[in-house]
Amino acid sequence: MSDLQLSVVLPCYNEADNLPLLLEGYRQVWPDWPAELVLVNNGSTDNSAAVLARELARPDYAFARVVTVERNRGYGHGIFTGLQAARGRFLAFSHADMQCAPADVFRACELLVGQPNPERVLVKGRRAPRGLGAAVITNGMAVIASGVLSTRLTDINAQPKVFHRSLLPELTCPPSGFQFDLYLLYRAKQSGRSIQTIPVVFGERAHGQSKWAFSLFSRWRTIWATIRYIFQLRLG
Ligand SMILES: Nc1nc2c(ncn2[C@@H]2O[C@H](COP(=O)(O)OP(=O)(O)O)[C@@H](O)[C@H]2O)c(=O)[nH]1
Ligand SMILES: [Mg+2]
């Protein structure tokens, strides 16, 4: 059994320009207790593989390793692959585009570890109010999901998510796409776990553009897929 306390999984899809910043950001706040950073190269078609090989050759980044998904099958598939390869007692994931502060993962983990029964709690980020468009999408999805699934869910896609590894075997049919966060929260609630939140800042991407919200059509496609998925979950 590994003595790692925490595995931080970061799904990375064509984030080559962000990877050096990401690694440096994590290095600066990396704890002195046993933890690992699992970078999932999620079928990237840019030069992420070469950048990762170059950066991880540095002894400074010995806390990090790569899990490679050969062909991209979606955000959820990437995260789930990373979680399955993770060895920590607690598992976390966040994003790889520099919008989420690395320190938030460790703050969330501290809150979780301090719980009387950390196996029964999931800790997630809670973003400050953003622009009108983002607020409508985020709150609209939370209201629809909460109503249809009869359980209170808020700011579903806020990062990070941190939980005890006992939740992992309960993720029996995770979605391969962006609905993974919703599925995780729903499974946590269904199994009687509680969700606690910490306030987080959600900044701008350092490089590149959003992989789903880059046009009106792409936004609607994802929103529509999520609404359909909420009803699928309801119907079991
Ligand atoms: N869309 C998408 N994002 C992925 C995938 N795998 C990993 N990611 C990462 O998931 C995060 C999604 O963030 P982004 O596309 O910026 O979406 P947004 O922040 O919600 O606008 C980024 O860090 C991506 O690199 C994938 O297969 N598809
Ligand atoms: Mg992003």
Arrangement of strands in the largest sheet? 3-2-1-4-6-5-7
Which structural class do you get from the secondary structure elements?
A: alpha/beta
Task: Give the CATH class.
Answer: Alpha Beta
Shape: globular
Mean pLDDT across all residues, rounded?
96
Uncertain ranges: none
- State the helical fraction: 25-40%
The appropriate CATH architecture is Alpha-Beta Complex
Counting structural domains, the number is 1
Summarize the helix and strand pattern as letters: EHEHEHEHEHEHEH
Describe this structure in words.
With 236 residues, the protein is of the alpha/beta class. Helices cover 39% and strands 18% of the residues. It has helices at residues 19-29, 48-56, 75-85, 102-113, 132-149, 180-190, 216-234, and strands at residues 6-12, 35-42, 64-69, 90-93, 121-127, 161-164, 194-200. It has a seven-stranded mixed sheet, with helices on both faces. Helix 2 links the parallel strand 2 and strand 3. Helix 5 (132-149) packs parallel to helix 7. The structure holds guanosine-5'-diphosphate and magnesium ion. Residues 95, 97, 99, 205, 210 line the site of magnesium ion.
